């Protein structure tokens, strides 16, 4: 459009502007048609935009995906392959399915999800990869947060439904999707999944594979992550309230097939056998804490004793010691990206993060 001699009428300028707005909206699952009294671009300008969401989810290199699929399948362990076969069978059978992939960090959940995506996309099928957090969505091709993809309202009640209307581009995309993978699932309130169930039943009610007896109207949905990690955050609530808000307390859970991954692939790699054994021991200790098997019980609470070799013993300048341990010779490596690639310090609060930052100045 950067042409000095190009002359457009006011009507053409308005149509092209509206088309640009519509293109941006469709990229986020919305449309100008959803806004009352808002003008819509003419048909000759809007041609090609209607399938924007579908094209984005089909824009993959089939040959590269086929190669990735074959490579991943050959390297899967028994648990991963069993989960893969069960889910793919449900997808190919068009009979619906609701699955939860359960496993601690390092058991290959992301590897399984990427393999499932490659299997379907290599055959020109559509997979919607969503996560409960923005950072996790970066691990998946075309990954989106659930709030972005499905328009989850911020305030949820038992009567909440998602604002996805039949016939919209997003509704059409959901109808054509063969599989929906939702990672970091326990982070969100069960009301999110129950509202999605109602939404899908409405959207899919006219589809030939619709089944009112199945969760999500017969769409194959895979949830996953570890319940030892972050549960829904409910301000000023009790432990009972938080537990009751989790997905496994939903009416949907009775329909869920649990697929468990137990082999921690990260624990099989190390510079020495002793290093591998140390990591395995530390990992087991963390899992035992998560399962409530470690610590002295005191009125419903547990006191866990931390191993001395992972403690910072300098009580005067603890952050300085931590920075020196994680980032030795920091100034000498300050411009080396590879130096920072495998190093990080995690903080529970912004106050702690700021203290660490000041220690690194």
Structure description:
- The protein has a six-stranded parallel sheet. A two-stranded antiparallel sheet has the order 7-8.
- The protein is 42% helix and 10% strand.
- The longest helix is centred in the C-terminal third of the chain and has 18 residues, at 273-290.
- The protein has four domains: 10-50, no CATH class; 62-260, 3-Layer(aba) Sandwich (Rossmann fold); 274-311, no CATH class; 312-361, no CATH class.
- The chain has helices at residues 10-26, 43-46, 52-58, 62-75, 78-93, 109-121, 134-137, 146-150, 169-176, 190-203, 239-245, 273-290, 318-326, 337-341, 350-359, and strands spanning 97-102, 126-131, 144-145, 177-183, 220-225, 257-260, 296-298, 301-303.
- The model has no long low-confidence stretch (mean pLDDT 83).
- The two termini are 48 Å apart.
- With 361 residues, the protein is α/β, with parallel strands linked by helices.
- The chain is built from 15 helices and eight strands.
- The chain is globular and about 70 Å long.
Q: What is the name of the CATH class of the largest domain?
A: Alpha Beta
Structural class of the secondary elements?
alpha/beta
Fraction in beta strands: 5-15%
Q: What would you call the shape?
A: globular
Write the layout of secondary structure elements.
Elements: H1 10-26, H2 43-46, H3 52-58, H4 62-75, H5 78-93, E1 97-102, H6 109-121, E2 126-131, H7 134-137, E3 144-145, H8 146-150, H9 169-176, E4 177-183, H10 190-203, E5 220-225, H11 239-245, E6 257-260, H12 273-290, E7 296-298, E8 301-303, H13 318-326, H14 337-341, H15 350-359
Parallel strand pairs: 1-5, 1-6, 2-3, 2-4, 4-5
Antiparallel strand pairs: 7-8
Helix pairs in contact: 4-6, 5-6
